[in-house]
Amino acid sequence: MRAIKQVEGVWRCFICGAESPDQSRPHVGVCACESPQRRGLGDMVSAGLSAIGITPERVSKALGVKDCGCRQRAEALNRLGRKFGIG
């Protein structure tokens, strides 16, 4: 259930103040502030690789290292993606 309040006759999100898109059913749906954080390019690549079984744990085990650097690479891809409007 959304955190909704009525301000001057308009239903708004209690968290961010955004107007509910459907004023007849204001508690339906998810506000942008309640949705998961926008994903960047690195997060998308990481999710795709995880979906086919390539996880940071498996990469670390295969390389024989404690930290494979996957998170740092994902952050670098996120920064690169933002330059092109992704995430």
Q: What do you see in this structure?
A:
The chain has 87 residues and is mainly alpha-helical. It is built from three helices and two strands. It folds into two domains: 1-35, no CATH class; 41-83, no CATH class. It has helices at 41-51, 56-63, 70-83; strands spanning 4-7, 10-13. Strand 1 (4-7) and strand 2 form a beta hairpin.
SSE topology:
Layout: E1 4-7, E2 10-13, H1 41-51, H2 56-63, H3 70-83
Antiparallel strand pairs: 1-2
Helix pairs in contact: 1-3
Describe this protein with a few key phrases.
single chain, 87 residues, mainly alpha, 3 helices, elongated
Summarize the structure in short.
With 87 residues, the protein is mainly alpha-helical. Helix content is 38%, strand content 9%.
